[in-house]
Design a protein that fits this description.
single chain, mainly alpha, 2 helices, 0% strand, DMAC1-like_dom, Distal membrane-arm assembly complex protein 1-like domain-containing protein
């Protein structure tokens, strides 16, 4: 099966839902771990915050 370069492969709805929910859940968990009361240094919390936002963004991009 060959596809032209102008055709983008579309995932099924279930794949998009599961992928988006996974990325969003990991992002939300990372943001939860970066809160002020969580153990760790300020640098670790900032890195965790950036990763959390990246995963949340990945979940949004994955949906579309």
């Amino acid at each position: 099966m060959t596809a032209s370069t102008s055709e983008a492969k579309q995932d099924c709805l279930g794949c998009r839902v599961v992928g988006s929910a996974t990325f969003a859940s990991v992002g939300a968990y990372a943001l939860w771990q970066s809160r002020a009361a969580a153990p760790g240094t300020l640098l670790q919390k900032r890195i965790t915050t950036v990763l959390g936002l990246a995963f949340l963004t990945g979940g949004i991009i994955r949906w579309y």
